[in-house]
TrEMBL record:
Similarity field: Belongs to the lipase maturation factor family.
Domain Lipase maturation factor 1/2 N-terminal: 158-316
Domain Lipase maturation factor 1/2 C-terminal: 379-517
Membrane topology: Multi-pass membrane protein
Matches recorded under InterPro entries: LMF (IPR009613), LMF1/2_C (IPR057433), LMF1/2_N (IPR057434)
Protein name: Membrane protein
Keywords recorded for this protein, A-Z: Endoplasmic reticulum, Membrane, Transmembrane, Transmembrane helix
Compartments reported by the entry: Endoplasmic reticulum membrane
GO process terms (BP): protein maturation
Electron transport recorded as keyword: no
Amino acid sequence: MAPEAPPLAARPADEADAEDRALLQRLRSHPLRRFLGPPRTYLLTRFVLLRLLGFVYFIAFLSLALQLGPLLGHDGLLPADRFLGRLLAMSGGSPLQAFRRLPTLFVWLGASDGALHAAAWTGVALSLAVCAGVTNALVQAALWALYLSFVRIGQVFYGYGWELQLAETGFLAIFLCPLRGFRPFRSPPPPVVVIWLYRWLIFRIMLGAGLIKLRGDPCWRDLTCLVYHYETQPVPSPLSYFIHQLPRQLHMLGVLFNHLVELVVPWFAFGPRPARHVAGVFLVLFQVILILSGNLSFLNWLTIVPAIACFDDGALGRLFPARLRERAAELAAALTPSRAHRGAAVVLAIVVLCLSVGPVSNLLSPRQAMNASFDKLALVNTYGAFGSVGRERYEVILEGTSDEALGEGTRWLEYDLPCKPGDVRRRPCLITPYHYRLDWQIWFAAFGSYESEPWLVHFIYKLLAGDPGAQRLLAKNPFPGAPPRYIRAELYRYSFTRAGDGSGAWWRRERVAEYLPPLSADDPALLHFLDAHGWPHAARAGDRAGAAP
């Protein structure tokens, strides 16, 4: 059995290539080679899985780095330093106690804008390295710890199910890699138990999504949910518009296909090899369809990662050149994970098994929760999506005016966010896997009132004050020279137009109600609201009075 080679970074390139050739020659003459038969190992599986995970990490950290200041910075909508300050105060000023309450590295690093941006861009750099194939257990552990740290202080902007899913997926990846070495084909294959843990993850993801639908909205049971979904989902894509136009019967068939993939197919991830491969094809195909039909952030890209574990090297090898396929097979035949690596994988399996009690109980419960964590490190979670589907689409539209006096002749100009519906003639955008977090969160705001989304009032104040960070979150600022005198929020009902109707518009809309009355930067009610939430503003303390808007 060939020993694991030292890291290539310590050797010249020509020496490394010579050792590669010598190793392959020894493997080709291995006495057991002719008895190996079709490969049942997972070197290529790890190769694909880690690179896709690296890509998802890259998108997650990049969108974080680019939106960090306006959302979570010191002058952001929900400042992370203030959130962390409250956490430390509740913990008696002890970083250790604060970490026990809410695991995040920022209890020690601090949540200054400099620390937050340094951590985010470090995540970008490490994830790019993984995409290039430079990774090991320490790199994966750093990515996992950094991202989970942001999730824990991200508040409402990081309250989505795929944040927990990325944390769990990334934690498993630590045990997929060796501790030393960086090149995928010079390291032993991963312990098979970690591959099975990824299958356990995709099983829970899909089954949880299927069960929450059956237990939730009746339209999943009468097969009509997709009649509405493409129009009412958070951020529709251009293809959403055209899929929505399909006949009702095709939408009903789509729901049946959804139930097949989410409720039946996952069981075959634990079946014989041919069944696993068929299950993997269905799972990946389903996620590709979802990617094309909507902008669900990086959720569907991330869900493909554990689905890759349904395939072994023999199946995935068809996607690789023959030379690379042969090399992987020979190395996998001769190298095995170290005893320490196998032992760590077994300990991981025991931990996951113990922590799965809560998620499994949740799956079996008629009161199933959607997207919840049962441990503070988010190691084993429960998942679900679209347990309810809206029949109509509502949007909160922000409008500003520079007029000093309000009346029937007031000229209001609309603010546009990057991808949420606003201008009815603007084509829906295709941004998956990128995530505009403000666009998503304002979609939720339309279901309730500003009291449930107080950050929206803070956002309006920042626009009134001409805050550069808030303006960076916009697609178009109708007041580039100076901020408006007043901003109001209106609630509209949106629906797709019919394709080919000649209107030139993608949407039609009608006003439903006033969401927030006109507010000015010196409005006493607005300032009182900001004070109540601990958000700073420019007014003098003596001028603050009134009630919440």
